[in-house]
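[retry 2/3] DNA methyltransferase: previous attempt timed out, resubmitting with same input.
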Amino acid sequence: MDDVLHERVREIIESVPPGTVATYGDIAALAGAPSPRMVGAILAEDGHDLPWHRILRANGTPAPHLVHDQLERLRAEGVLADGQRVDLRKYRWKPDGEEDDGPEGLF
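[retry 2/3] DNA methyltransferase: success.
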């Protein structure tokens, strides 16, 4: 794996603020990684010092082997799950410069 890409993925994950989440796909897209699986591999190999708990699967759920610890950490930051699913519309991180998904120009 490319060291530059590896570090870019780490930097993006590190920038996800408390109280928000991102998906593996979000991180992959921002970093220019070829797949969300690569993001997961980087976290598994070198993510112990990152806010790994803020990264979820595309459906808003944690990986099964992380579910309890991850949801507990998210809850401590104010991110609440419905069962084991986090509402991505409510808690998804919007990096600087991204517009809100709401309609424009109403007022």
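[retry 2/3] DNA methyltransferase: The radius of gyration is 14 Å.
[retry 2/3] clearing retry counter.
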